[in-house]
# Entry
Amino acid sequence: MSMELLTAYGWQGVILFVWVALAIGSFLNVVIYRVPVMLQREWEDQARDILEIDAPEPTDGEPFNLLKPRSRCPQCSHQITALENIPVLSWLVLRGKCSACSTGIPFRYPAVEMLTAICSVTVILLFGFTWLGLYACLFTWMLIALTYIDYDTTLLPDQITYPLLWLGLVANGFTAGIVPLHDAVVGAIAGYLFLWCTYWVFKLLTGKEGMGYGDFKLLAALGAWLGWQALPTIVVIAAVLGLLYALTRIITARQRSSEPIPFGPFLASAGWASLVIRDTFLAAFLP
# Structure
């Protein structure tokens, strides 16, 4: 499906795009759940190799990746059929329950699908059905995956952050990008070094680690997409959102003040907001 096909069919193309975005949101649910499991298994295999421990015999011999096995109910192992896997619609028809055992299906699954569609339509309205619009959609989808993975596991996988960084450089270097390539390269370097320096200053002063290395790489990727000029805006917005989130959870007794919170979701949210309302945000920092 090309950009020309969508623009040629007008509103039909928009409906088709929304449906594709919902389907991609469904795939992102798979990425969000399976990538941490795949990483955990990879780390366990590496640890066994180092310790020279034999790997346990596989129980079913079925590969586990983003494509296999097919999705199943975690309670009764009922394999999800194609009709039960239609984005949003299937969840509504099933009333949020497994068709086999009536176990509740979390609302987060259709929520991720709808969020993906809304954000995708937003960037297409901003950039149009162009190559830059396609790049902006990829930027959006990868940020959504990183947001939920970090929220669930406090991990920002290199398998997503590195491609996100390089894709930003490619988008700004070989197409009519968001910023000049020079600004993108400086943004990637400055984004990483800023949080890296912040990390070490905090650690030297307190003896504690204030954030993970994945946060450095994510801000570097955002700098590669949006340029060094956007970094102050992103950091300020992310810090404010993170502080409000932490205070809310402390006030509602959902966590203690000493417990860490994932910073990736706030960086991702601030980065995406800086993309869609870039001029408004940057006006606070630049003439």
